[in-house]
Amino acid sequence: MHPIGRGELVQVQLAFLAAIGMQLTLNDDLAVGPHVAIAIFEVLLLIAVSITAPTRHNTSTHVHKFLALLLIGIVSLINTISLILVIGALLNGDNVAGAELLLSALAIYATNVVVFSIWYWEIDSPGLTGLRRKTNEMDFIFNQQRMNTPGVKSWKPTYFDYLYLSFTNATNFAPAETKPLSHTAKGLMMVQVIISLFTLALVAARAISTLT
Question: To which H or E segment does residue 51 belong?
């Protein structure tokens, strides 16, 4: 288990802010509940997670771990429900402009990439919670970890590597080079592909067709 630096935590915090910001771009008819209030609650959760981050490696501290998982779970759930609302608007013929449907689809897709990059980072490294099931357990294996070259033998993935993994999985419906090892990793990747498939193949295609 490798330590998480302050710079990496800042990257994840910025990723969360980007995901929350993209949720705010959704049309009111395609957003979940009072989305401004929900976004404020997510930001407050992010602040709480940031404040309690120094204790994340303390196994006796449960508050930070609960807040971190709650934050990731809420952002994931909101994005999934937004996708369902967009699909419902398309199937029911709701009076939502094609441009708004397209922008909503792009926002959901981008949020999907960000959210699952954080999930991958969380399960394969100490992540926000500071948890690992076993110190020698791996959920993903990267190319650098399979090399015997002295210069890369001690290489460890950072959050950006998981962001790249999430982007390739959401775009190609398969990782470019990284291999999932655990059932948890494979399950998360399957869920991400399903969300991405509906977003790109159904929602975006139908939204574009309304513009022609």
Answer: helix 35-52
